[in-house]
Amino acid sequence: MFAVRRALRVRHAGAVALALVVSACGPSDGASSPAEAKAPSGAAAPPEVAAPAEAVALGPVHELTVTDLDGGAVSLARFAGRPMIIEIWATWCGPCRRNRQVIHELKGEFPEHLVVIGVSYDGAGGGQDAGARSLVRRFLEKNPGNEHEFMASDGFRQFVNTRATSNSIPKTMYVTGKGQVVDLSEGVQGAKWVRAMAKNLK
């Protein structure tokens, strides 16, 4: 008799334990399955996959390479998607200095996405003239410079020569974000003209 009572108690305890396990794993009254259950409020959301960036069309100016002031080659394709004002100048050129001053004074009015680039015609040899690079560097230590200052390569000069009416400088090239030349002006630019071009370059 004692053995029968003990067996019943064990069987009853097992049923209670089973019921507790079922209630802990999930409700049985039509609630969602574990796969449908919401994540805990403190759990991190799964990372979102970023949409691929839209490709930027490259134009003829983006195919050009210039030289930085350390003698390294720089492709203008690095500015793809941003309109450019490229001022072509030299340290020995008085009108170039006045042109640079006009552009520098207007920079605060330019759209943020527009980039102003100086390309010096000092020296020769595709920007590989260390003396010319040093001359430009010394000039920039005492005079306002652009965000980017480079030396003209042979390829850059040839590109300009095919679009210019003379060999004189300064020249100012207005380029769209797609690398197309909108205008190549010669001589010192008027503030009104530069302001309008900067505003309308896309």
Structure, described:
The chain is α/β, with parallel strands linked by helices and 202 residues long. It has a domain at 60-200: Glutaredoxin, CATH 3.40.30.10. The chain is 34% helix and 16% strand. The protein contains five helices and seven strands. It has helices spanning 2-25, 94-106, 130-142, 154-161, 191-200; strands at residues 65-67, 73-75, 84-89, 115-120, 148-151, 171-175, 181-186. It has a five-stranded mixed sheet, with helices on one face. Helix 3 links the parallel strand 4 and strand 5. It starts with a helix and ends with a helix. Residues 1-41 and 49-53 have low confidence and may be disordered.
Short synopsis of the structure:
Helix content is about 35%, strand content about 15%. It is built from five helices and seven strands, in the order H-E-E-E-H-E-H-E-H-E-E-H.
